[in-house]
Inverse folding.
């Protein structure tokens, strides 16, 4: 079931009303990630989209999903700091023959994975100068230490959204007692997207995978999961993958 704020989402209109972008005239468009993600999930329900299923089942640690629920635009607390928690495009809680797992899904056409860690740190430092009670610098340091075992200065070239989405998946799995957390990029190749931007996102994702895996994995193949990645302090194993829906010319 797909739901938001206790209401089931059954149609594109439901999705737009309950979990649509804040600026629908700009972002709710054919060929862009917000609308295409909604269309993919609504069109597949009560199953998951085929490319999501294929990516999950590509790994031996996953099997046919027996039950699932999903929340679009899910706000997930990843630490104890005050302030706005990060938004996930989709948070999925599911169960298969191996038990419960959580999937943090980021939908992308060819939009970026947000600011770099360097840009995020500079913005946090500016806020701290204006308000010494601001905890953005401390939040960033805790996040990079938890995920990478190093401070922000060693992660300046990474995309901050990939870190927060990973932390959201791991945090949700920990609270749910699930042993597996998945970061899954749901990519849409459409007439409104550019190949060079898809390549940029692939490079950003591969760079993050190399760093979070400690150099054990160098890239993510489309349609597959890699992992498990384990780190001291994590209660769940991390898996990372990319599912692609190709819509050009359709």
């Amino acid at each position: 079931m797909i739901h938001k704020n206790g209401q089931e989402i059954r149609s594109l209109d439901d999705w737009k009303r309950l979990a649509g972008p804040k600026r629908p005239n700009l972002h709710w468009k054919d060929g862009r990630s917000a609308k295409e993600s909604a269309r993919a999930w609504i069109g597949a329900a009560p199953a998951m989209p085929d490319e999501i299923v294929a990516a999950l089942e590509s790994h031996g640690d996953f099997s046919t999903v027996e039950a699932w629920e999903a929340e679009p635009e899910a706000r997930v607390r990843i630490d104890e700091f005050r302030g706005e928690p990060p938004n996930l495009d989709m948070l999925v809680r599911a169960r298969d023959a191996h038990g419960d797992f959580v999937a943090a899904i980021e939908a992308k056409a060819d939009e970026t994975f947000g600011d770099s860690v360097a840009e995020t740190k500079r913005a946090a430092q500016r806020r701290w100068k204006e308000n010494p009670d601001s905890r953005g610098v401390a939040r960033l340091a805790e996040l990079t230490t938890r995920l990478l075992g190093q401070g922000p200065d060693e992660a300046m070239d990474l995309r901050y959204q990939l870190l927060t989405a990973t932390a959201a998946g791991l945090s949700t799995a920990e609270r749910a007692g699930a042993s597996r957390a998945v970061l899954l990029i749901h990519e849409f190749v459409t007439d409104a997207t550019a190949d060079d931007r898809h390549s940029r996102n692939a490079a950003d994702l591969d760079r993050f995978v190399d760093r979070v895996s400690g150099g054990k994995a160098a890239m993510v193949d489309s349609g597959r999961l890699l992992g498990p990645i384990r780190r001291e302090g994590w209660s769940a194993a991390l898996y990372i993958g990319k599912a692609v829906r190709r819509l050009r010319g359709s």
Residues 115-158 form one domain. The helical segments are 12-19, 24-27, 33-44, 50-57, 117-130, 136-148, 160-176, 195-212. The beta strands are 3-4, 7-8, 67-75, 87-96, 99-108, 180-189, 225-229, 237-246. DSSP finds eight helices and eight strands in the chain.
